[in-house]
Each structure stands twice: as C-alpha cells, then as structure tokens.
C-alpha cells in the first residue's frame, strides 16, 4: 500500500483497487469527482461501463508487474462536444507473500493541455491622432496643391500601415483559432501512438512465435483495441483536414483576384475558424436565402465577414446568439445581415464606429482598424453598410452588395446607423 499522506495529497483522482478490480480506497480528489466508489469495480465506478474495458490496463499492469499508462475518451465520442480525454495510470503493488495484491490507479484530465491564443494586436491610438492631425492640416492648406498632394501621400501611407496592422492582428486571431482547434485531435493521435506501437509489437510477437493452443483467440483479442485506436486516429485526422479546408477556403489560395463567388462559402469558412470562440457559449444560426454569386475579391470580403463575426463574438458576454441572414435586396443587390445579442452600441458612438482608431473595446482586445478597413473594402466593391443597434439588446450590421454589373452606388457614401431596432 502507498503511504496514506502521499496518496491523500495527490492532485488528480486516485484510487486503491484490489487484484479483482474492486475499489478499496480513494483520495479526496477521487471522492469529489466520482463520489464514494468503495467496493465497486473500476469500470463501473469511474467510466460508467457494465463490463471491464477491452484490453483492460489494470489487468495488464498486474500481469506484467509494471506501471502502465493509457488514454481513454469518456462523455462523448472522440472529436464531439463533451468528450473528455483521460490519462489513466495503473501502478501495481504486491502483498507480503510477493503476489500481486492490487494497484493504484490515477485519472488525469488532459483535454485542455494546450491553450494557445496569440493575438498580434498593435495599438492604434498614435495612428488615430496622426490621421486627425493630417485631416486638420489638409483643410488648412486646401488651396495649396503641392502641400495637399503631400498630405494625400501621407494618408495613403497611413492607410497602408493600418491595413498591415489589421492584417497582422487577423493572422494572430486565425493562428490562435487554428492552433486551438487542431490541438485536441492532434493530442488524440499523439496520445494513442505509444499504445498503438505496443499493440502492434505484441501482434508481431504472436505472429513470429510458433502457433500454440489459443493462438486464434489471442490474435482476435488484439483486433478490437487496434480498431478502436485507428478509429480515434481517423476521427482526429478528419477534424484536422476539415480545419485546413476551412482555412484554405478563407484565404482563397490559388484563386483569381476577382471572381464570382458564393458569399455563403466565405461566411461558413469564417465561422469554422471562429468555432473555438463560439463553441459551448454562442449559438450560431444560419438563415441563408437563395442569393446569386457576387463578383469580388474573395480574400478581402472574407476578411470583412471575419471582422464582423469577431466583433459580434466579442460583444456577447456569457451566452448569446449570432444569426447570419442572407437574401436578395431587389433585382440587383444581395443583403447579408449579422445579428448578435451582445451589449449594443451607444447612440453617441454609432457615428464613429467606422473611424480609424476608434474602438470601445478594452486595450489589447481591439485595434480600432477592423471596421474602418471593412468599410473601405465594401465601398471599393460598390456596397454599403447599414447598422442598427440598441444598448443591451444587440446589434445588426448589414451589407448591401451589388450583383455583378450593377455597381450603381456613389463612392464614399456614409454608412447608415440607427439607434432603434
């Protein structure tokens, strides 16, 4: 038996079990997590199973007399919401007669061993002040063509810097999301690799040894374990492949600069890359209607969708809903609406939300450049923004975009805002 003081202080759930797999004792962490399991078999007390696990790790540890470690999934199928990945460790011990008397089993939750979220966001306060100063200077020297041209060049450079800053922030958000989403399936593959190799080694040993009585039964006993491990690997690989497809679609790699695209594809790709921020907290409702394809730069429009969805996610504290609705707006335009149940925008701020550098988010969360760049992108595509918001009730940001060949809106049209819904 292990020393009681060490056993009691273990941070993860631990139990002492007999050679017959019955629970003899538990540490406080185990009792807090699973209740009193005294006398119950391991598989029923901790995993809710009616029979011992296939290829039971405890029996293997008792048979070999060595510490064994395995990884299991409980709560849901691998890769699904609610799945918990456990690292199971069995340490056998012997009685006074030297025979195997039981084992100590520890259970460690390794579902969230990696939480990587690296936002590359740079401050924009100095840039906002510089742009305001340049605008004031441009008004003062409007009659002096040479100085005005110099100011225009400065503003273009400032815009390029702002675009680069927001691009870097977006890359940071994408990297954090992709790393977070890929971590869980990748951890499954890594965790099961050692066990898979050991099982394959056992198969090789069985096949290399002379056939004896019971050979077929021993061979068949190995197959379910291998099949389960390969199924887990397959699910994990499929999840990683789906994430990579979404990232490729979002970036529109190897695609023409302008082309006819389905807006739903870009919206879905953006939502997939934001899944780590909405999962379990925000319900996403897709209210898609039949709309024609639009002629645009797909990477630029996808960045607009990503920015609007990211703003909606950040506006919701706790649980909430984001609804994306699409429909035709007359014969020549499509309308894409992003509704959220977030905190809303104060009336005095609504006229400033598209100003470069303006943000209501805490320092380190927003750059104040995303909506300014999104507005410019939509304007360059002949579209316009319409914003409706109420404090405490949420916000609706709508895009009205022309179908190919119908860019009839004047450039630089100010966005529509409305404090009522």
Question: What does the model show?
Answer:
With 421 residues, the chain is of the alpha+beta class. 46% of the residues lie in helices and 20% in strands. It contains 12 helices and 13 strands. Strands 7-9-10-12-11-13 form a 6-stranded mixed β-sheet, with helices on one face. A 5-stranded antiparallel β-sheet has the order 2-1-5-4-3. It is elongated. It starts with a helix and ends with a strand.
Features:
six-stranded mixed beta sheet; alpha+beta; 12 helices; disordered C terminus; 421 residues; five-stranded antiparallel beta sheet
Secondary-structure blueprint:
Elements: H1 4-9, E1 14-18, E2 23-26, H2 28-34, H3 42-47, H4 57-64, E3 68-74, E4 84-94, E5 100-109, H5 125-140, H6 145-208, H7 215-251, E6 259-261, H8 263-273, H9 275-278, E7 282-287, E8 294-296, H10 298-315, E9 320-328, E10 333-340, H11 347-350, H12 370-380, E11 384-390, E12 394-402, E13 416-418
Parallel strand pairs: 7-9, 11-13
Antiparallel strand pairs: 1-2, 1-5, 3-4, 4-5, 6-8, 9-10, 10-12, 11-12
Helix pairs in contact: 5-6, 6-7, 7-8, 8-10, 10-12
